[in-house]
Amino acid sequence: MLINRLNTCLTVFTAICFSTVQSQFCGRAPPIAQARVVGGQRAFFGQIPWQVSIQAFGTHFCGGAILNDRWIITAAHCATAVSRGQLQLVVGALDITKFDSFLQMIPEQRFNADLVIAHESFNRRQLLFDIALIRLDRRINFNGQSQPVCLPQQDEDFVGQMGLVSGWGKLSENDAGSSATMNFVQLPVMTNRECQMMFSNRDPPQKVIIRNEWICAGFREGGRDACQGDSGGPMTVFQNGVWELGGIVSGGFGCARANSPGIFTRVASFVSWINQKIAANP
């Protein structure tokens, strides 16, 4: 069964970009060498500065990415999991259990949600059009730990490139909860046909129709993947000297299983929608 990667602990709950979506300063962070997230490694301060922790009642349950100083992008199943008033968004954090730690030279920033825009065609059961925008209640103060990611061109597919997936999700499928520290993993991006064929090679075979608005990444042998708690977080690709947002963690079949690549919302398919919504809600 295709499941989202929302932190399961929440199932108990029933680039300076002031006036434009993006700027020339987006996507600036050090390139990351070929590297849980599952099977990954810990991030360090400033390595993934667009990463956002989405929380409710002080508990992390999803990720997101900074688009500009007022807007966060995430999965619709994350943005609509709780009411707008319960959403808390944290940027510039590394260890989400030690806010304002003396080890963190630049403190994290916390925000409330001013506006939530889920895609009009979002289907929670099938995870279709699983994309949303969240406007913050005030502007982000950009620094070495908080920076916007770049949007891709509308025709980019990133096939054959390595996508970097980051977040505070479970380190293995059987873990009880999220990781305290941010982790990342790199996964190869494949064509939708390759993705569909890989699922058909599962044991037992899994019939999955890979939609055009999805993008898949993962290894045939498994072992590395996103997991619950990583939902809504970014899959970025480093090209042309900047990091571009190729996908949003959406769903999958378990975590890091063989012939079970991760399924992400294909951001390139929604660039016009993103621009329109942000322009209409300054």
Automatic annotation (TrEMBL):
Extent of the signal sequence: 1-23
Recorded superkingdom: Eukaryota
Keywords linked to the UniProt accession: Disulfide bond, Glycoprotein, Hydrolase, Protease, Serine protease, Signal
Any GO BP: proteolysis
Keyword hit for Disulfide bond: yes
Domain Peptidase S1 residue range list: 37-279
InterPro entries: Peptidase_S1_PA, Peptidase_S1_PA_chymotrypsin, Peptidase_S1A, Trypsin_dom, TRYPSIN_HIS, TRYPSIN_SER
GO terms, molecular function: serine-type endopeptidase activity
Transit peptide recorded as keyword: no
Pfam families, alphabetized: Trypsin
Cited PROSITE patterns: TRYPSIN_DOM, TRYPSIN_HIS, TRYPSIN_SER
Protein name as annotated: Serine proteinase stubble
Organism: Hypsibius exemplaris
